[in-house]
């Protein structure tokens, strides 16, 4: 389902998804309508605008978080006109599986948008490259991140976008083994415990942000 108070964007995205053979079970113009539809229809995936009525500040984020509490299996792709770091962190604080955060301009790049949506719907993550870039640079307290080599930072940025090892290797023109080595080093340098949780890729970014805010 789609939740956005802009009728042109809301209906435009709905038409795009339907043209791709996806079922749009409902659209909503405000958080209350969105949450009611989530409860009634139990959609697999929701596309939610950050800024919604009545104040057009963070109602969309609050609604997305509330929807995930009610239905932990709900995949959520949040759309924002601008990079809003605090909102991205709040959304993913309880785990990043099945979550995405894209700038609205990405919708116009249909292939990228659909790829991100499908990744999130499948339980993965999709973080806008511009969001990742600002998350990695907007702080003076860089002690842990400074442990990373330039190549490890490149890998971390692509990890946070939601790319897998093969796609990272293709982007950086290195082997899968080299990518895996960099990722293990990143987890170690950011003090992430060794386990098999898929969301450690995004947690690597969030760990750095939490250190900055502490």
From TrEMBL:
It comes from the Bacteria. Residues 141-212 form the HTH luxR-type domain. Pfam families: GerE (PF00196), Response_reg (PF00072). Keywords: DNA-binding, Phosphoprotein, Transcription, Transcription regulation. Residues 1-119 form the Response regulatory domain. GO terms for biological process: phosphorelay signal transduction system; regulation of DNA-templated transcription. InterPro entries: CheY-like_superfamily, NreC/VraR/RcsB-like_REC, Sig_transdc_resp-reg_receiver, Tscrpt_reg_LuxR_C, WalR-like. SMART domains: HTH_LUXR, REC. The keyword Transcription applies. GO terms for molecular function: DNA binding. The modification 4-aspartylphosphate is found at residue 49. Gene3D superfamilies: 3.40.50.2300. This is DNA-binding response regulator. It comes from Actinokineospora fastidiosa.
């Amino acid at each position: 389902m789609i939740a956005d108070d802009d009728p042109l964007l809301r209906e435009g995205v709905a038409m795009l998804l339907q043209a791709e053979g996806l079922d749009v079970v409902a659209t909503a113009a405000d958080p209350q309508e969105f949450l009611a539809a989530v409860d009634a229809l139990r959609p697999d995936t929701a596309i939610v605008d950050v800024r919604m009525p009545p104040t057009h500040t963070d109602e969309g984020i609050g609604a997305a978080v509330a929807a995930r509490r009610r239905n932990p299996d709900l995949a959520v792709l949040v759309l924002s006109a601008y990079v809003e770091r605090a909102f991205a962190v709040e959304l993913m604080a309880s785990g990043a599986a099945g979550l995405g955060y894209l700038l609205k301009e990405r919708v116009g790049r249909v292939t990228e948008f659909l790829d991100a949506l499908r990744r999130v719907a499948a339980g993965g993550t999709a973080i806008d490259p511009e969001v990742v870039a600002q998350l990695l640079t907007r702080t003076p307290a860089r002690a842990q991140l400074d442990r990373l080599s330039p190549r490890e930072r490149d890998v971390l940025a692509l990890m946070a976008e939601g790319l897998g090892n093969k796609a990272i290797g293709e982007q950086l023109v290195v082997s899968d083994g080299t990518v895996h080595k960099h990722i293990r080093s990143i987890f170690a340098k950011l003090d992430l415990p060794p386990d098999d949780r898929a969301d450690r890729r995004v947690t690597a970014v969030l760990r750095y942000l939490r250190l900055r805010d502490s």
